[in-house]
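Exercise 7. Given the components listed, write out the predicted structure of the assembled complex. Treat all entries as one system.
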Amino acid sequence: MRILSLLMGSVMALAQVPYERIAGARQQPENWFTYSGDYSSHHYSRLSQINRTNVAKLKLAWMHQIGSRQHFEATPLVVDGVMYLTEPPSDVTALDLKTGRPLWRYRRTIPEGVPVCCGQVNRGVAILGGLIYIGTIDGHLVALDARTGRVRWEVEVADYKLAYTITAAPLALKDKIIVGIAGAEYGVRGFLDAYDAKTGKRAWRFWTTPAPGEPGHETWSGDSWKYGGATTWITGSFDPELNLLYWTTGNPGPDYDGDVRLGDNLYSDSVLALDADTGQRKWHFQFTPHDVNDLDSNQIPVLLDALWKGKPRKLLLLANRNAFYYILDRVTGEFLQATAFTRQNWALSMSPTGRPVPNPATVPSTKGALVYPDDDGSANWFSPSYSPRTGFFYQNVREKGAYYFKTETRYQPGRFYLGAFKREIPNEEPYGTLRALRALSGETAWEFRLHSPPWGGLLATAGDLVFSGTMEGDFFALDAVTGKLLWRIQTGGEIWANPMSYQFEGKQYVAIAAGSALLVFAIEP
Amino acid sequence: MRRLWITGLISVLSLLAQTGEAIYLSQCAVCHGAGGEGGRGPTLARPTLRNAPDEEALFRVIRRGIPNSGMPATGLAEREIRLVMEHVRALGRVAAPVDPPGDPKRGRQIYSGKGQCAGCHQAFGPELRGIGERRSVAHLRTSLTDPAADVPAGFVLMEAVTPGGGKVSGARLNEDTFSLQLLDAAGKVQSFWKSELRAWKRLPGQSPMPSYRGVLSETELDDLVAFLVTQ
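Answer.
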């Protein structure tokens, strides 16, 4: 009996991830506790066993194949010898790190006819206590037992028939699970939710388009706020000291027709600083007021404490889909700086408070408007990475424009609510770059050219490496200081995900989803 | 009540006024391109569609989407789907030629004889099977005398410069960040690591095909076109 309870105790300990462990993620670089690695979203590994001197010997250690033809956009979590991986559309697999073999699988049946703009994809899970959390493409939040994959509770976040879907990894903090939604191409009204981690009871909801009587409502003409989008489809960041949650929002609806929603359209294309306990807004900053180019700001907010003009400040860094790299004070929301990191023509200039002067020539028209970047953006959901060793903010950049032609649109539930279509620029071949930006200025220190605009994210490591993947299936490592290519492998599938790293039994591994396989690499002597 | 009735009438009328093209542009073009050229979704500007070989399948795909893929259900009503289907089937197709001038039998002889077309188009030139469904008689006629006027989208002519200064040109089979594979005019695959090349570039607006202006007579050009549209 005593032995049994001892045994039970150790099994329990394996799957226990209290909030304090996640908050102290930097002290346990062998694990990967959140979608972006830690609450500050540096997407950086403090492991250095794989480094510039030995990365050339990186070899496949094991792989895990999935049965889906959807884009495989997952970043796995790793905790105490187990990897928790989502597979499209909304499945979870727990993998044994020793063998690469599945310990359990959660398979969700998805109803027919879920309206999604960009595939029935999923980017990852959250872990807290002994539970694993997944947001599903049919609009539910599901809590699974980390040891068995059995469903502990499940709640409907919103109705998928109205095109509310979930693709982002939830964020677990304190006793809550934060979950964002997608659907702004279908005229949904955006929000961010928090649920009690143990019971699934909703703790708060923050609507990202204000209702009548709420501040910001005046930035929408007529009833347009009801279909105003501003969805929350990429995982945010958290500052435990300030107790502030930083979450970004997407395009206003309809995407390209601003005439039906006059005004700034708050809080679309913004970053929101919310009290983590109550969901109350502390401040907001809108990157692209009255957006007509589908410039969702659903990029990862990177939190950095640094000297700014000689004074220590709590900063928020964000490389926006609109081609500007922003530095904000994350205590107050004060705009400090914005620098264009690639070609753009939608903003003529930027005011001292960070308000862009829009270029009227880039408003979609019946004749067609040439816009840089196109609606996939210069940046997008794929993760940047910040290395404290180099002081660089690494960003994969899409170098592409397009012509936008205005069309008629009206809101109908479950249908596209867009207002334009696009045409490619004849004889202009788009490309990509991996850029090392100086984190405190936004200047490009070096860039590495990619054949196609990328859809994968980045991982910088303490081994002074940056890992990235391409649409043609190359997975590679650059010298984080110089940008020199040090290692590559052809994986045979498009890379639509962020690399991550973990350590198991004293050995460092790097994992990436490519095609329909998760590949895990290590130094093989 | 009366206002409601009028609103209802207006929406019914606007629905009736909708064309397949208008619905396509508002609901489909975002992924498949305004002309069906493809983008996030596959190209639709082709005579046969892999996931919609027949009308029933096309209807099902538009209504329900394709499970386990990026194609979502559209939420369109049956009448709207029928209009979109008609539009989709017309994308990338030209109207059947009405008695093209020229003799296809003589055209066939020119194709494999005097014109010397067969060699290149079997080795590395653009696919001509089904060309009559994709290109009009006038377009084909122009291509014979001015080949670079409109090079097909998928045919990218490139030139690679080797370390010794040698130039290799050919149709691009694959290009990625690190490598390049060309099919040269002899039909041979030339594969390079970019790190081992001195330079490489696209040759936009150029065609390896010679102009047949002055080489073939007007009648012979008509004959050749008459043959091509049967392909």
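Discussion: Chain B has three domains: 2-90, 104-151+208-228, 157-202. The beta strands of chain B are 157-161, 167-175, 179-183, 189-193, 199-202.
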